[in-house]
Specification:
This protein is an alpha+beta fold. The protein has a single domain, classed as 2,3-Dihydroxybiphenyl 1,2-Dioxygenase, domain 1, CATH 3.10.180.10. It contains two helices and four strands.
Length: about 100
């Protein structure tokens, strides 16, 4: 018999990123992207993107993974006006 998916659905979605310099990463997500800190675990900061989508910033010295220069994940934010967001990112000198 095949196992059935549990009832209740997904409550929260979090994409975790690992950083060597957590305070600098926090400033970018707060000051540039304007995200709100939803959960503060000290060594892990979870920011609400929208709805139930979140991004987690993790201090590499405490997390399950280590920082890597080339990230293995991509954080995609779907927006209604790509051109406006691109202009905003350029104005804030957000690196590609």
């Amino acid at each position: 018999m095949q196992a059935q998916r549990p009832e209740g659905g997904i409550v929260l979605a979090i994409t975790f990123q690992y950083y060597r310099d957590l305070p600098t990463a926090m400033r970018f997500y707060e000051d540039v992207l304007g995200l709100t800190l939803a959960i503060d675990q000290g060594w892990s900061k979870i920011y609400r993107i929208d709805g139930q989508a979140h991004v987690g910033l993790v201090d590499e010295t405490r997390g399950m993974q280590k920082w890597q220069e080339k990230k293995t994940v991509q954080l995609c934010l779907r927006v209604p006006d790509v051109d406006a967001w691109y202009a905003w990112a350029e104005a804030n000198k957000v690196a590609g």
